[in-house]
Amino acid sequence: MAHLTADPRGLIVLCPSCSQANRLIYRQWDAVTRCGRCKVELVRPAVVVEAHDPGSFGSLVAQVPCPVFVDFWAPWCGPCRSVAQEIERLAALMGNQALIVKVNTEEVPEVATLHRIQSIPTFVVFRGGLEVSRTSGAMPASRLREFIVQAAE
């Protein structure tokens, strides 16, 4: 499954019609976005987003209006690697109901420290920039979906 990368203003997606790069702006997440070149409507992708820097992560969590599920992980972590496929499934299950984000704690330790991540994998749900729930340990996509739904209530 494809992954997207977050920047401080939004997600960069390719138009399925003309391959033009377009930005889906966090603050306008629920608005209809059209390709800058061919004007076709762009659909928010139901894929995993990778946050590679603190600024992008902070903007994304603060500005996206839907629940943001974050998988704090590291490449050396066996349970993190085993749950990676479940995170992909989770993105497909949630569709546009939640944004699924991965943060590599080795690559962006500032974000992990700020959010007091002490073990991995740790999963956190944010809403309106605030943490609303957290859990740890590998689990199937169906349980992760339940976790997000309960946290968003």
Describe the 3D structure.
- The protein has 153 residues and is of the alpha/beta class.
- It has one domain (44-152): Glutaredoxin, CATH 3.40.30.
- It has helices at 54-63, 78-94, 109-114, 141-152, and strands at residues 3-5, 10-14, 21-25, 33-34, 41-42, 48-50, 68-73, 99-104, 122-127, 130-136.
- Strands 1-6-8-7-9-10 form a 6-stranded mixed sheet, with helices on both faces. A two-stranded antiparallel sheet has the order 2-3. A two-stranded antiparallel sheet has the order 4-5.
- Helix 2 (78-94) crosses helix 4.
- The longest helix has 17 residues, at 78-94.
Strand order of the largest sheet: 1-6-8-7-9-10
Structural class: alpha/beta
Unreliable spans are: none
Largest sheet: 6 strands, mixed
- Share of helix among residues? 25-40%
Individual helix count: 4
CATH architecture: 3-Layer(aba) Sandwich
First and last CA, distance: 29 Å
CATH class: Alpha Beta
